[in-house]
User: What shape does this take?
Amino acid sequence: MQVVIFNVLKLVNTKMDFFEQILIKVDSNAKSSATTPFSYFIQTKNLKIHYVRIQHFQQSTYRSAVQLLQANHGFYITVFEDLYKTSPKKTIDRLLYHTGVSIRIHGRATSIKKITKPEAVDFLKNNHSNLSLKTKYSFGLFLKDELVGLACFGQIINMRNGAKSVVLIRFCNKSGHRVVGGLTKLIKHFVKTYLIDEIMTYCDLEWSNGDNYSQLGFENKGKTEPNEFVINLPTYERIFLKKFEKEVEPITVNIDDYLKIENLGSLKFVKYFNV
Assistant: This one.
């Protein structure tokens, strides 16, 4: 009986670690309710959040909860425990951004400069919650000498029809800030500089329904398959499954220390120019 009581108390304390931050930083009147034995749903004045713990996580149970939540609530933000634990401030700041609470900077007050890959990686580590990906071009928005926004693009591809295409891999504001019109300004600059005909990008369904891209003139091309990850339970480190299988020898790790999960996938968007 004592073991059961301890586990229940541990569950409550782990939940409150995130929920208390929501009450303190986001909305003191927020409400929460359990969705599975390892997750709960939070409703604030401006946000709906599904917080998913990795202890006792089961993918099939999670899928069923997602279907029910989407049917009853439409779009909501998903926060996995490992991402919150490794980047608590960035996670809360990103949630606040979605409520409109941020320092607003007008894009016209900024200047554009091409920055190096190490500079881009460092900015993303400090201000973006997603994993870094390979990029070819990075352009920053500067307010005087301060980097306040960043767009990263992939390799430019010459299509069979003669069009020049590129992927917008990341757009990121400085944490706690919003550069109004910043993404539009960076895209226009990149298109003009490299004579781009189309830009493709992806919207993470755990954080957005893609409305921001639609408002910028991008066309929704449909949903992609979810990405698979492996989480190191003691450290909360998240690794792409393919990378884990390629780089980690099974005999060198305790397999019980790792959890396989998949995200909600993405929406693919494309914007055409010079047509």
